[in-house]
Amino acid sequence: MPSLSPPTESSPPLSPPATVRRNPPRRARQTPAAKALHAGPPPRETNVPAPAPAPAPTSASENLKVFLRIRPLHVTSGVPGCKPSKADGRVPGKGAPPKAESGKNTTCLTVNGPSSVTLTSPLSLHDQKRVKSEVYDGFSFVFPPDTTQQEVYARAINPILMDFMRGTSSLLVALGPTGSGKTYTMFGCATDPGVVPLTLKQFFNYPSEGTGHATRSFYISILEIYSERGKGERILDLSADGEELSFQNSTMIGLKEVMVSNIEEAEHLLALGMLKRSTASTSANNQSSRSQCIINIRSAEKSHNGHNSHSAVLTIADLAGAERERKTGNQGARLQESNFINNTSMVFGQCLRSLHEHQRNPKKPLEKHFKSSMLTRYLRDYMEGKKRMTLILTVKPGEDDYADTSFLLRQASPYMKIKFTNIEEPPNLPNKKRITSSLITDHHKRRKINVSETSVDDEGSHRSNRNDGSRASKKDADTKKLQEVVIPQSSVISTEVLMPMTVDTALNDAHHMELLSLARKEEIMRNFSKALWTTLKQYKQKLIESEKNAQSLREALRKEEVQVMELNKEIEELKSRCSCQKPPHVGESSSAKVYARLDCSRTGLGTPSYQVSSSPTFHNGSTLGIAASQSAQSVSCDQDLNDHNCLLVDQIPENLPGMEIIHDDCNGLAVSEPTMPSTNLNKSEFGNESASSFDNLSMVGGRNVSSSMVDETTNLKENKRQSPEPGLSQAQHLKSSDKYYVRRVLKEKNATVSQSSNVDKPKRKLRPASSMLLKDLTGLDMETTNRETRDKSTDEGQGISQNNASLLCLLRKQS
Ligand SMILES: Nc1ncnc2c1ncn2[C@@H]1O[C@H](COP(=O)(O)OP(=O)(O)OP(=O)(O)O)[C@@H](O)[C@H]1O
Question: CA-CA distances (angstroms) from residue 654 to 740, 765, 777?
Fold first, then answer.
């Protein structure tokens, strides 16, 4: 297999490797550019692409951009201000180490094309393992060793700058082994500035968007993370009068942000920072960086109404290169610094690999490697893929650097597959910083101002061993300038310090709190409804039990009532027995009454509550009136004497329960309801002719009750007269007498008919005998009594008279 390394002037022809490993994706064919490279070193104009004049805006989803810059094999110090490193500062003829001579003129890395390189193991390693060449492609661009700073800026930085000016924050990191040219790429030298000065220069040359109605301001903060004698990581503000910082809760406390208005101020600030940065001489680099340097450039565009249109932060990190102890030979403090540097580089790589693995397999959690170092904690958003990041890998192509280069390329190859699909900070988010600034309280602003003042007051008392000269000489001027800058921008500083707390985070927190509140309310309402439901169920059960109790009580009450009724009946029976046993006296007052209460159930009237009431007050003993009344319901008794509802008085047993018979002195018999008022109607109302068929009518309870009765007055009268023993009771008398028919007719219809009847109805003639009898019977008092009754109820009397007319007919029949 032919060698992929392009022939160079300094590199001898390599023996063909046994195997070629491709990482990442294998390509079946070489790219035309690689073929061109294989054909021979192209001229500079064709080998290095021209800067992209108009980079396209970054898409919403794109891979992490990884650029590879290959440092020249030999660095000359021909350019003033650019000091070559110790290892590379050999000038031909000045005595280079002979043992390193063999590998100094050979390269292990060749450029295949704009995005591909081939790493070939040196001959010294052929004996130890199988010879192989590794092809690494997929880079955003590969900068050959002779690439200028401008070309790097144009290819790698300009797209970032365009996004930055549109308001998109991003991170640019230089990563590579020690002495590979990271610091040179970032900062360059006085005569050959790096991408940072070029970027700043471009900033001030960049026209404001729109029609010039807005002004753009730039703010720069610079810091370093270092380890002092292995006692842990520390942070130092590299700006003028900068102090040690603290990083708490994703917030860099005390970091100053200096506004720069022109390129000179910016370069001066950068130069001051580079002077303050921790560097040391090692066997690999005479000015090796011993800290991780971070520069934040913030752009803020203000419109004429004073509002920030948009703002973004471009973070540039120049990491200290990883060092091999065998190669550098560090000891003591340098060795401790090497451990810190290597550890930081390792954590940085772990974060990116974890991010790549997480994106490749979402089930795999994103490891929290960022917690392992201060640098990754500070750049957490970038380590978690929330913001765009660009990597510039710097390598040395010498055979002696094969291990470092191979390690870096293997580690960084997966980085190219990292995608930025969930960018938190979309471009043109004008209100983001403004809203964030509004979250800062005045107290916080005052605190920041005090910090600046305190730092000014304590000038010279801290870190005097670092930059005493420059700080002391510019103390007065810088103090005034910093106050002018920091105080007006105190809110800006606070905003920057609180940058991790973005608007999105604040909104998310607000939404989260709102969701928590809603969830809490929902839980409260759910519990309340449960309690209410339980209470209602308990009340329902209690209600059912109460209904059952009420039902049982009703039944018990019903039974009690039945018992009471039975007891009342028994009492009445006992009373009636007592009264019946009491012998009536013949000589009692004429007003004595006979009360009889008949139990219909026993007398066969069919109505249990039936009561027979007789209400007459008979005088002269010539009239027997028995009025049947009904308190609750009427019992119909036909007027016919043969009707079964009619009672014969002589059929009433003497000891009939409930029947009380009181003998009248007039030999009249009355069976009355004692509680009911009764009215007797005089037969005279019906005329003389009808007097013989007089019916005793009773008014019961104001209710017109037609009591049809027929008295065999003749028999009664005769019985009276023929009574052998005047002292006999009426019952006995009745018993022995002829039959007395007591008829009761209680009909509502009769009452109705009675109402419509007229007393002036044509009277019917009775038989002479009956008429005579009636005349005799109707006495004197009846007439008077009937008159009184008629006064009370004339209507009823009219009805009664008509009703009696029909009764008279029956009497005729019987007579
Ligand atoms: N592309 C380049 N062209 C010319 N000189 C270079 C280039 N890259 C690096 N150098 C020189 O190589 C030397 C080492 O470079 P530099 O200090 O930038 O390495 P580094 O990666 O920053 O090392 P460290 O990690 O130890 O700080 C410097 O003298 C620098 O001038």
Answer: 15, 37, 25
CB of 334 sitting under 6 A from ligand 1: no
pLDDT-based confidence at residue 75 (cuts at 50, 70, 90): confident
In a domain, 677, yes or no: yes
Site to probe by mutation for ligand 1, drawn from 71, 86, 290, 342 as the one with most ligand atoms within 8 Å of Cβ, is: 71
Q: Is pTM beyond 0.80 here? A: no
Q: Which of 472, 497, 522 is the last residue before a domain boundary?
A: 497
Least confident range of 81-90, 223-232, 234-243: 81-90
- Residue whose C-alpha is closest to residue 317's, from 188, 223, 212: 223
- Sign of the CA dihedral with 334 first, then 336, 338, and 341 last: negative
What pLDDT was estimated at residue 334? 78
- Domain, as residue range, for 770: 583-814
Distances in Å between the Cα of 18 and the Cα atoms of 15, 82, 498 are: 9, 40, 55
Instruction: To the nearest 10°, report the CA torsion of 638, 643, 644, 645.
Output: 20
229, 404, 765 from 279: Cα distances, Å:
14, 21, 159
Q: Is 289 in the pocket of ligand 1 (CB under 6 A)?
A: yes
The answer on 197 and 335 residing in a single domain is yes
Tell me how far the alpha carbon of residue 287 lies from the centroid of ligand 1, in angstroms: 9
CB 706 within 8 A of CB 799: yes
Structure confidence at residue 638 (pLDDT): 39
* CA 82 / ligand 1 centre spacing (Å): 9
- Total domains present in the chain: 3
Give a yes or no: residue 76 inside a domain.
Answer: no
How many whole angstroms separate alpha carbon 761 and alpha carbon 29?
144
Residue pair 398/106 in contact by the 8 Å Cβ criterion: yes
In angstroms, rounded to a whole number, what is the distance separating the alpha carbons of residues 758 and 756? 7
Residues 484 and 538 in one domain: no
Whose tokens are 């018990």? That residue is 556
- State in Å: Cα 83 to ligand 1 middle: 9
Measured from the CA of 83, which atom of ligand 1 is nearest? Answer: 29
Polymer length in residues for the chain: 815
Pocket test for ligand 1, best of 68, 73, 75, 175 (most atoms within 8 A of CB): 75
Higher pLDDT, 209 or 135: 135
Rounded to a whole number, what is the distance in angstroms from the first to the last CA of the chain? 161
Specify binding-site residues.
Answer: 176-183
SS3 66: strand
Protein residue whose Cα sits closest to atom 14 of ligand 1: 179
- Res 541: pLDDT: 92
Count Cβ neighbours within 10 Å for each residue of 502-536 and write b for 16 or more, e otherwise: bbeeeeeeeeeeeeeeeeeeeeeeeeeeeeeeeee
| Closest to 197 measured CA to CA, from 231, 153, 241 | 153
